Amino acid sequence: MSRGNVILAALLWLIIAFLILYPLSILLQESFNISGTDSWGISNYLEFFKDTYYLRIFGNTLLLSTFVLLTTTVFGVPLAYILARYRHRGKTIFTALILLPIVLPAFAGVFAFIIFFGKYGTMNLLLMDVLKWTKEPINFIYGMHGLVFVQSLHMLPFIVLGLSAGFTNIDPSFEEAAEVEGANGFWRFITITLPLCTPSYLAGAVLVFLWPFTDWLTPMILGQTDLLPSVAYINIAYHFTDMHRKYMGIVAVVVSAVFCISLFLLARWWVERKKYTGLSKGTTAEGRVIEPGPLLKTGAYVYLIFIAIIVLLIPIVLGLSAFSRRWVFEPFPTYWTLENFRLILLESPILIKNSFLFSGLALVFGVAFGLPAAYLIARTRVPGKDALDFVITLMLAFPGIAVGVGYMLAFWDTIPLARYWIIMPLALFARRLPYFLRMAHASYLQLDVSLEEAAEVAGAGRLRTFMTISLPLLLKGVLVGVMMFFIMAFQEISTAIFLYRGGWETLPIGIYLNWHRGMEFGIAAAMAFLMIVITFILLLIASRIGGNMLKAAWSTDE
Amino acid sequence: MLKEIDYMAFIEIKNLLKRYKKVVAVNHIDLEVKEGEMLTLLGPSGCGKTTTLRCIAGLETPEDGDIVIDGKPMLSEGFIHSSQRGIGMVFQNYAVWPHMRVFNNVAYGLKIKKVSKKNIQERVLKVLELVGLEGLGERYPSQLSGGQQQRVALARALVGNPKVLLLDEPLSNLDAKLREKMRFEIKSLVKRMGITSVYVTHDQAEAMVISDRIAVMDSGDIVQIGTAHEIYKNPANKFVADFIGTMNFIPGEIVQAPGDTPSVSDVVCVRTEFSEKVLCTTDGVTEATPGKEVYVSIRPEDVEVFAEPPQDRENLFKGVIAHKAYLGNFLYFFVDVNGTRIQAQVPHHLPQDEGQEVHLFLDPQKCMILF
User: Fold this and answer.
1) How far apart are alpha carbons B337 and B275 in whole angstroms?
2) Helix (H) or strand (E) holding B220
3) DSSP per-residue letters across B102-145
4) Which chain B residue has the Cα nearest residue A278?
5) Is the entire prediction scored with pTM above 0.90?
6) Least CA distance to B54: which residue of chain A?
């Protein structure tokens, strides 16, 4: 353990302390404040856990989480199995489409589905006016069921990615052994395949389960505000004059953050304990790809296409809306125009500029921090490096609203960083950090140490070795990490919404504001469409560079 | 030769063909395994040995041919599922399910066959004892050593009283010491139970220890079948000779066909780089006609090394020692004979050192002609 590494570790810890630990401790401290007095105590928490209202919304959120997890699992298991095991055409396209929701901003989906499935949306208009099947509009989307639908679609990729990697990676002979023993089809799947995949399933499932504790925007758009994150948002953002409600909002944020982290840690611990690697040392044949019978194959295609269509609805509907105006009470738009795009691009290009500037800067910070961090974690035994990894990974489970509120409180008076626009990229950096780090880390683990050692034996110093040997070999993983980080920072809203001031709006915030004001739906749709296009291009580049790396780093926790 | 009549073929492979896309993995092979016999499929990786085994197991669907086990065709009268073939199988990486305890791993197949609980208990405990795992039934595989996991796999394959035991490189993941011990253990266990078994390995020493007969495979074909002794002493071709043991191959051309000199029948004369005349036994090889390019082949332990040339011997060549190694019970030489390097293994001491001259005697009776 060299002095250089220790200094590096200390530096990284300093950054973590300043940008993550400090704001979160302020958040925690603030939640103990008692309004109207200078004193503090646990009375806010007592009120939270005694008030049937708060308990009910906590229960509601748990219920929603359960439904979302159930839905994603029921739809995700066959989907993952088809993608991993069946030989079929267009595998890449289907995989890409099914993974698309993960990178799309969550609210893009909501807007699209409101336009399509809303009370007087395309579906209802078709049913009522064209097909004449019903007289009254059917409520497809507003309510708990719509919320479960939208959130499930958004989180489905986490389940599919984890499980399909599991299905592909488990050693074929585990299943063959069961086959020889006489276990057929379904029974083999239940007793052998699925249990062996539980670790990879769980890693994704916990993120799915936590999503309703994080997502305040979708419920609000769908008129379901009795949920923990929405209540927290409303209490904090709408009632800044009522100190008590603000503190109760902060308590709600802390409670959901603590809940998320506890559950996340529990899942991680369990996955760690159940990890089935290192047992079969033999050569692993490529995963079992089978040619299904014609009936199964048709069924599989129908199912894939069904899911793909639902996903595709998002860009299609938003596209229709973006290129039209006055699309009301008609199943499809009739008046086509580029006016929405003209407004965005010519009259308020600042949003696009901000989005790129903030995400880009966050990316620079992310790489500057992530590469050394990945090096320390993967290659050295510096004390505290595991804790570093731990804290950064926790950010995956941390609700964005908690980061936003924490920053708002911490960087206003004592350290007035939030008065300058640099707070935006800093916050994005802190929130999305794990997305770059786990890519860099994953590729570091695949890089044979002896390649680096050979360079050091040849006389290259540590930095030179890194620049001439490690970095070129890590490049693929690093580039994919860069893309993923940028995409995730680009669509960030939960944190940014608390920190932006006039002139700092990003595209997601612009979309939200345009929807919120209720009049410029077309502009919001055009912005969302623009974001989808940009995201999709970035994603395409990323998967070109290293689709396998992407899968590997996303599918398993660690 | 008489032996073959004593036995009935228990597994009969007829004209088996297995292709992966365009690559032929198993090329129309025929093979018979006798009842109670332990037969090894031996060959380098990619030779088709594992594919053949997997065809017997029912894990692959061959394009052509049939497999008959105990008189019952597995393919020609409809594909018989692997679990209906009466086989037990040990996989290369054990395939011991990590999420089940040892007991449940072994009991898995019996439960599917709906054997009564009491019966399962009895049989599993018995087989665990048989493989030397008594008392470990409640462990998880992760709490076992590699050798113990191997035994779990063996127990699982044996618990259903299979007619045929299939073993796919079962020892390749163990360390060298344990591997040598397990060879004998598996052999004595299988022999004691009298199960007909097919064993796949790429390790020739393992094959020679464990099997009654060895089938050597190369590029999807069976090149030679026989006992370890037969294959070592009379390899069918250069490939087999090279794969099993060490062999000197001296390229040359036949200059005198058998029968030309009636006095020494089945001996031919081969012109090599270092000598116009190397005498070899043909052992009835009919293709040994003049002009044919062949390899004069002799095992290192059959090469005799002399400090002084003995009298009245043919096939005596002078060479220079390039390397000499002391290996305890014998000496090992690399000798350059006019540019051709010949290996020799000598059981006695010889004072000559590297760079010094020696005389090699290649006994014509032990020089084979291989193609």
Assistant:
1) 9
2) none
3) HHHHHHHHHHHTT--HHHHHHHHHHHHHHTT-TT-TTS-GGGS-
4) B142
5) no
6) A176
